[in-house]
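Board work, copied verbatim: SLC26A/SulP transporter domain-containing protein
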Amino acid sequence: DGGRGEQVESIVALPAAMLAAPALFYVALALSGGSLADARAYGFVGEASGGVTYAEAFKLYDFALVRWDVVPGLALTWVGMLVVCAFGSSLDVAAIEMDLGRPLRINHELTTVGFGNIASGLLGGFTGSYIFSSTVFNYRTRLHTHVIGWTLALTELGLVCWTGDPLGYVPLFFFGSTLVFVAIELMLEWLVEVRAKLPPGEYLVLLVTFLAINITSLEQGMLIGVAAAVLRFIVLYAQEHQVEFRHMKSRVVRPPR
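↓ predict structure ↓
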């Protein structure tokens, strides 16, 4: 188990623990005599907003209010977004491939992202790509089946059709604990366990990139990481032995063809 201590091998352990956390919260709330309003007042549960139907969202799209004269000026922005999304999607697929430890059909994965973005745009959504953290989280559950994808899709479809606000009933610590769980897993894997797999120079570049992203921002941290990798390459190349070219003549007599 990589030195992390004993792990539960059951595939239902993690989902059961996730369902038990909010359930125990409401049990404790009931035993303490508190109400949902009290939990919201103390910040344990978020405020519930008024729900609307999905059809009402389309009423916000009024093409008569669009400034078509400024659309040509957005061409460069669109191209930039295309490049960023394509590059980001490629990085997501590569990161997932590394975490799984086996090759993926990259063209198939990128095609899926493309069709997903087309459907999202036609239905009023935003551009997007794979959610790396969710993919890694599902992989940690050991449920390697398409049932997870179908369950997630049907659940989100039900939430879209529901006019209520589900986030107004889920304890806020549930979201925080899930993010902390994924963060700890990734940090243990890519900052601790990977130390024995990388040369000291590459591991130093990894640490510099990690610290730079947390100190500055994602974009600036990535640029600093690339600069550190380039600097390391220059140092390694400079340490190589100089290659001398010499012209040599062969004394072997070969018969004419």
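The chain has two domains: 12-57+71-194, 198-239.
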